[in-house]
Design a protein that fits this description.
Layout (H helix, E strand, L loop, with lengths): L17 H9 L12 E5 L3 H13 L3 E5 L2 H11 L3 E5 L1 E2 L2 E2 H10 L5 E6 L3 H13 L3 E7 L4 H9 L10 H9 L3 E10 L7 E13 L3 E3 L5 H7 L2 H21 L6 E4 L10 H8 L10 E6 H6 L1 H13 L3 E7 L6 H5 L5 E4 L1 H4 L6 H16 L3 E5 L4 H9 L4 E3 L9 H13 L1
Parallel strand pairs: 1-2, 1-3, 3-6, 6-7, 9-11, 11-12, 12-13, 13-14, 14-15, 15-16
Antiparallel strand pairs: 4-5, 8-9, 8-16, 9-10
Helix pairs in contact: 2-6
Bound molecules: ligand C2E and magnesium ion (2 copies).
Length: about 425
């Protein structure tokens, strides 16, 4: 779209955004609280056993997905992309050997533990068969399985969190393995009902081996290596296409995109953004630019130039993560922001900390007096939402309403939420 250079005027080429949408469709929409590179898929038809296995596995750091029926197993394997599997060999009519063959056919790279009440010699034979198929066969455990035995076997399957290199990330951008998830922002003051009226775009890396990686695993690397420009370019293209696609389906919401500090040095940023939104034609007010307070204060004159031109072009500007930096709201007010986002480290405290309530209340009042609307980030419980509403905070974003969702799940969520 911006060939030969991207939005930020860098040389690295990124391909068109269309194909990225296909990757988004395939993305695993389930999100965990933290990036987890250890995912365990358990297939066992005895729910009681599954629960015990789950408890043991979660305690040592696995994210767990349970299957009680063999028919669900292959789909769960495809979407969850486990790094380890516990397979019960005897599942009613279904034969574990067939499942192993099916995993081999899919070139499964997960560690596999097989369990069964059948005799241990047969289990050993099945294990050898799996190895012959090229599978990573680990322990075979006879039932009843003892927690200690299981714990030891699972520990051997733990994988260190992946260390990504600049070249891995560069390839991921080229191959469009980056996908965007969307977290709803709920308007607290619209009427009696709480309505989803906008959202934030949050990038993820759909890694072929490690599954869905959160931004904490790669944004720092992108910022250090200069890959943040092509990364943001790809995110923006995916977001613009998504806005166009939702609009065709009757959903017309503003979407916020995070801009890293490095990008605020490009004086032509406003023109390039305007160009991006011209195909398909999207109103500029539909794109919200989230900028952290420290980023905005790094080179205030240049930032003021860029942000003023963004505002003149009708883009909405939001101060992200307010409360984590050292700049004062009064200083920030010189910049043409229209929204302030209170950082979640403050918001999560309001449930149980009176001081946090006072601080959040003061930020909301000060922001209002300076003509800014406020979005609170990280509301996890109903108490926080009730409090934020009572102090006139306009918007809230948090797990209480929803985690970030893949695009198709997001549209379903919004339709159902706003209807109910
Ligand atoms: P952010 O912009 O402050 O985004 C909000 C983060 O808070 C998201 O984490 C979101 O999932 C998380 N969050 C929202 N509500 C809750 C809650 O109730 N509880 C908890 N525990 N967390 C909540 P995520 O997606 O991991 O993103 C982390 C950061 O990565 C973002 O913080 C942003 O700074 C950065 N990031 C994400 N996408 C992009 C991108 O496309 N470009 C750039 N430059 N940075 C990005
Ligand atoms: Mg943000
Ligand atoms: Mg934030």
């Amino acid at each position: 779209m911006f060939a030969p250079s991207n939005v930020w005027g860098c040389d690295r080429r990124t391909a068109s955004a269309g194909a990225g949408n296909a990757a988004q469709e395939e993305a695993v929409s389930g999100e965990t609280d933290s990036p987890c590179s250890n995912r365990l898929l358990i297939l066992d038809d005895e729910p009681g056993i599954c629960d015990v296995f789950q408890e043991v596995a979660e305690k040592i750091g696995f994210q767990v997905h349970l299957c009680n029926r063999a028919e669900e197993f292959v789909l769960a394997y495809e979407t969850f992309q486990p790094t380890a599997i516990i397979l019960d060999m005897v599942m009613g009519d279904v034969d574990g050997v067939e499942l192993l063959r099916s995993l081999a056919h899919r070139q499964c790279a997960a560690d596999i533990l097989i369990i069964s009440g059948i005799d241990t010699r047969l289990l050993a034979t099945v294990r050898r068969l799996g190895t012959t198929h090229g599978l990573r066969m680990r322990e075979s455990l006879g039932k009843p399985v003892h927690a200690d035995e299981l714990r030891t076997a699972l520990r051997r399957c733990l994988r260190a969190p992946p260390t990504m290199t600049e070249s891995d990330l560069g390839d991921a951008i080229e191959l469009k393995q980056l996908v965007v998830h969307y977290q709803p922002k709920v308007n607290l003051l619209s009427s009696d009902a709480l309505v989803v009226d906008s959202c934030e775009a949050l990038v993820r890396w759909q890694h072929p081996l490690f599954g869905l990686l959160m931004p904490s695993s790669f944004i720092g690397l992108a910022e250090r290596s200069g890959l943040i420009a092509p990364l943001t370019d790809l995110v923006l293209k995916l977001v613009v296409d998504q806005i166009g696609c939702w609009r065709q389906n009757g959903l017309n919401l503003p979407v916020a995109v995070n801009l890293a500090p490095q990008l605020l040095s490009h004086l032509d940023l406003p023109d390039r953004l305007a160009d991006l939104l011209s195909r398909p034609k999207i109103e500029h007010s539909k794109l919200v630019l989230e900028i952290t307070e420290s980023a905005a204060m790094e080179d205030p004159v240049r930032t003021m130039d860029i942000l003023s031109r963004c505002r003149l072009k009708q883009f909405t500007l939001s101060v992200d993560d307010f409360g984590t930096g050292y700049s004062s709201l009064v200083e920030l007010h010189r910049m043409p922001f229209s929204e302030l986002k209170i950082d979640r480290s403050l918001v999560v405290e309001v449930d149980h900390d009176e001081d946090a309530k006072i601080i959040v209340h003061s930020i909301v009042d000060l922001a209002h007096n300076l003509g800014l609307t406020v979005c609170a980030e990280g509301a996890e419980g109903p108490e926080a939402v009730t409090f934020l509403r009572s102090i006139g905070c306009e918007k809230v974003q948090g797990y209480f309403f929803s985690k970030p969702l893949a695009p198709s799940d997001f549209i379903d969520f919004v339709e159902q939420w706003n209807r109910d």
